[in-house]
Amino acid sequence: MGLGGGVINDWDQMQGAFLKKYQHYCRSRELKDEIFQMVARPNETLEEYVEPFQYNIQRSPYASLPLPDNVLKTTLFRGMKEQWIETLNIMVKGDIYQENFPDIIDLCIRSSRGSTRLKPA
User: Fold this and answer.
1) Long-range pairs for 56-62 at CB < 8 Å and ≥24 separation?
2) How would residue 107 be classed by pLDDT, with cut points 50, 70 and 90?
3) Is 76 helix (H, G, I), strand (E, B) or coil?
């Protein structure tokens, strides 16, 4: 997820790009319910949706008392765009929900970055 060449030419552009990407991480929120309310924004990539999802889990009260895998998967998929789920199903040649949560996260990031080769069995 790079910016490409010639996108940032001065400090103000760097600051703007940084704040656009990370400011929503720092807003004060109710951490307990935040992961259950996440929904992909219209122009967001799959990776841009998954990164804050993981971050919110890590900083929530659930980090010390992890949520069950099926709750994490259901919550993640509930906020995803339907086209992402369809693409992930194609990538695993079946039902993405059958994969474990860490593998789903990895596949989401690799899919968003264009590295769609599955891990060797």
Assistant:
1) 56/31, 59/31, 60/31, 60/32, 60/34, 60/35, 61/31, 61/32, 62/32, 62/35
2) very high
3) helix
> Phi/psi zone of residue 6: left (φ > 0), alpha (ψ -120 to 50 degrees), beta?
left
Average pLDDT along the chain = 80
Judging by beta carbons within 10 Å of its beta carbon (0-12, 13-18, 19+), is residue 54 exposed, middle or buried? middle
Tokens of 42: 């219209």
For the chain, the distance separating the N- and C-terminal CA atoms, rounded to the nearest angstrom, is: 27
Model pTM score: 0.66
DSSP state for residue 27 in the 8-state scheme: S
Cα–Cα distance measured from residue 66 to residue 97, given in angstroms and rounded to the nearest whole number = 18
Output the six-digit token pair for 24.
Answer: 């929503």
Name the pLDDT band for 55 (thresholds 50, 70, 90).
Answer: confident
